[in-house]
From TrEMBL:
It comes from the Bacteria. Its main location: cytoplasm. GO terms for cellular component: cytosol. One of its GO terms (molecular function) is 23S rRNA (adenine(2085)-N(6))-dimethyltransferase activity. Its EC number is 2.1.1.182. This is Ribosomal RNA small subunit methyltransferase A. Gene3D superfamilies: Ribosomal RNA adenine dimethylase-like, domain 2, Vaccinia Virus protein VP39. InterPro entries: KsgA/Erm (IPR001737), rRNA_Ade_diMease-like_C (IPR023165), rRNA_Ade_Mease_Trfase_CS (IPR020596), rRNA_Ade_methylase_Trfase_N (IPR020598), rRNA_adenine_dimethylase (IPR011530), SAM-dependent_MTases_sf (IPR029063). SUPFAM superfamilies: S-adenosyl-L-methionine-dependent methyltransferases.
Amino acid sequence: MKHISTVGRTKEILESHKFTFKKSLGQNFLIDSNVIKEVINKANIDQTTGVIEVGPGIGSLTEHLAIHAKKVVAFEIDQRLIPVLDDTLSPYDNVTVINEDILEADVPAYIEELLGDCDDIVVVANLPYYITTPILMNFLTARLPISRYYVMMQKEVGERISASPNSKAYGSLSIAIDYYTEAKTVQQVPKTVFMPPPNVDSIIVELKTRAEKKVDIDDEDTFFKLTRGAFLHRRKTILNNYQTLFENGKKRKDEIRALFDDAGIDPVRRGESLALEDYKKIYDAFKKSDL
Ligand code: SAM
């Protein structure tokens, strides 16, 4: 039988189950086996790997994952797809489909229960684009035992995730991702490999979880409040932005200047010019200050 990820088979499955796409759930299904094979190749999946997939759709990517990995756990929110997946994935006994919202699911418990005997756990997904950032941040902040991520997303989000300082795409998301992972874009994906084609361009991003912290932060909420604060107004200096960030900041300009002085960071710089290590210096100075 032909792979699910072909135009003919996809059309056949959609028709036989009378399935209609829900745009609000980001339903754009892959119809190109080559793109899927490349992702699987890059992700270096073998018979010892456990894979978590977010949003299996009708199973286009899931089928290839099932063939290559030891086990696959796939979270799908759309109840209408559960009987479809029961049907399309019936040849594979190493796949568990969970009909839950990925933002609500108890992922650590599922990992322990279903992937506990895998040597290595990897996330591979063509993500629902409308919630790319919350999905990734939920996974990363929970410090799940996942060694790497190969995820397809909207190109602009992928560029922000993997951006370096002094680039247009660099911001607080790039810093958060750099804190948890080593990120890089792997390849661009044309709209034509999806059914229906999305309105936006897509990109595959690789995130390798850092085994050791790049900077040591004990209060991550505060640290990310400081990094986000530096980008409140992109074109403004960090001094101006922090005057807005802190209560009575305008009156406490000297205290804020002293914070940057202590950190050894010029207060007229902009947030986009500072690397993760610079924010760590600001964080250390903040902890010593009364701000
Ligand atoms: N993996 C399939 C493929 O590549 O053909 C489908 C990818 S499609 C871009 C995204 C999938 O995520 C859809 O099947 C959609 O129903 C599902 N989805 C959307 N929101 C979700 C959520 N909060 N939790 C789990 N799945 C979700």
